[in-house]
Amino acid sequence: MATKLKTVQFWYEFASPYSYLAAMRVNEVAVAYEVRVDWKPFLLGPVFKQQGLNDSPFNVFKAKGAYMWRDMERICNELDIGFKKPSVFPQNGLLAARLALCDEVRPKRVEFSQGVYLMQFVMGYDISNFVNLHSVLENLGLNSKKAFAQSQSNEVKLALRNQTQWAMENGIFGAPMFVCGDGELFWGHDRLEQAVAWGAGSGHKG
Amino acid sequence: MATKLKTVQFWYEFASPYSYLAAMRVNEVAVAYEVRVDWKPFLLGPVFKQQGLNDSPFNVFKAKGAYMWRDMERICNELDIGFKKPSVFPQNGLLAARLALCDEVRPKRVEFSQGVYLMQFVMGYDISNFVNLHSVLENLGLNSKKAFAQSQSNEVKLALRNQTQWAMENGIFGAPMFVCGDGELFWGHDRLEQAVAWGAGSGHKG
Question: Measuring CA to CA, how many Å separate B153 from each of A83, B110, B145, B161?
Fold first, then answer.
C-alpha cells in the first residue's frame, strides 16, 4: 500500500550562498528520511527591504560577510564540492527564479536550480545573463525559447511575487529556510538534517 | 610526558541566548577532543553599535527574533535543559561580565558564567541585579563583597573594554564565537562541535 510521503518545503534564493549548499544536499538527505522536498524559489530582496536593509546583510555587516565567505570555503572543502566567490554579490536571481516557476522548467526544477547554483558558485558566472541561463536549460534538454517566453508571462511574474509575499507573511527572514508540514521553520544549511528529521516526524517535538 | 593542550577561545555575551546553549556544553565537548577552552566574556552592545544597530538584531529584525525564541525552545527541549524566555531582552550583562573578569571569580569563571545563564534563561531572573548576582557568587563559595569591589575597579573595567575591542577588531560580529589557535572563527552554537574539532587539529583544513 502506497503511503503519502511527508513534505518539507525548501525555500531558496538563487543568489544565496548557503542556499547553494542546501540545494546540493537536500534531496539526498530527504531520501534517507523518506521525505519529499518541495522546492520553493523566492526573492530575498523584498524580504531584506522589509527589514530596512537595502543590500544583503553580508554586505551591510562587513565582518559577517567576511566570515560567511571563509565559512563557505571551509564547508565546500569539507563536502568536497566546488566553490568560487562570485565577482558580484549578491547576483540578480530574478530571471532564474521566474524560470524555475515556468511550466517548461517545473519537471526539472531541481536540476535547473542546481545547474544555476553550480554556474554561479563553482564557475563564477553571472546568473542574470540570458546566454548563461540558456545553456543551463539546453543542457537539461529543455526548450529554452519556450522557457524564456513563459518566464515573462504575467502568470509567472505573479507566481513569484506571491511566493515571496507568502514567505514574508510566514516568518521567512532569510535563506535557506525549511518549512515542515506542521509549520515549524528551520533556518540555514546548518539545520538541513534537523529540518528533514522533524519533517519526517522523527525529530524531537518542542 | 605532558603535552600542551590546544586551546579554543569561547567568546560569549551574558545576554545572548545561543551563548547560553554553548556555555552549558562547550567544556564537555572540549574534554572529548582534549582541547582546553578559554572563556572570554565580552559585550555585544558596542559590536552591534559598530554595525549601526541600536538594539539586538533579534529585536531589530522581528521575524528573526520570533524564530530564535522558538528555536531556543526546541533546542533546550532536545538537549533536555531548562528554558524560560526572559521578560526583558536583551538583559544588561555589563556587571556579570565585569565580575567574570575579577580575580576573585576567575578560578570559577566557568561555574559563575553557567550560574548566571541558568538564572537568566531557566529562572528568568534579572542578571543586572546585585542581589541575584550575589546569590550566584555565594553559591559558589566566592566572596561576593570582594568580587563586587573588584568589578568596579578601573583595571577590570578596562579589561572588559579591551576584550570587547579585541573582538571588534578580530571579526567577532556576534556570539557565541569560537576562535581557534590558527585564528579560524566559528559562529554560533550550531558550530560548537566543528569549532572544537578544528581547534583540536582534527577538523578538515580549508
Answer: 50, 21, 13, 13
CA A63 to CA A59: how far, in whole Å?
Answer: 9
Report if residue B204 sits inside a domain: no
Q: Which chain B residue is nearest to residue A175, measuring alpha carbons?
A: B64
List all residues 6 or more positions away from A170 whose beta carbon is below 8 Å from its beta carbon: A179
Is position A44 within any domain? yes
Coil/strand/helix, residue B40: strand
The Cα–Cα gap between A12 and B139 comes to 49
In a domain, A1, yes or no: no
Q: Express each pLDDT in A34-88 by its tens digit.
A: 999 999 999 999 999 999 999 999 999 999 999 999 999 999 999 999 999 998 9
CB contact under 8 A, B70 and A185: yes
pLDDT < 70 stretches in chain A: 1-3, 202-206
Q: Nearest residue on chain B to A203, judged by CA atoms?
A: B78
CATH of residue A133: 3.40.30.10
Nearest C-alpha in B relative to A73: B206
Chain B CB within 8 Å of residue A7 CB:
no
* Residue corresponding to grid cell 578560578: B107
Q: Which domain holds residue A92?
A: 6-199
Give the Cα separation of B109 and B94 in Å (integer): 15
Q: Contact B206/A51, CB-based, under 8 Å? A: no
In chain B, residues with a C-beta closer than 8 Å to the C-beta of A83 are none
Give chain A's domain count: 1
Any domain includes B1: no
| Partner residues linked to A191 by β-bridges | none
Asked whether the beta carbons of B40 and B69 are under 8 A apart, the reply is: no
Nearest CA-CA distance, residue A131 and chain B, Å: 33
**pLDDT in the model for residue B5:** 87
Kindly state whether B66 is in contact with chain A, defined as any CB-CB distance less than 8 angstroms: yes
Could you tell me whether strands A35-41 and A6-12 are parallel, antiparallel, or unpaired per DSSP bridges?
Answer: parallel
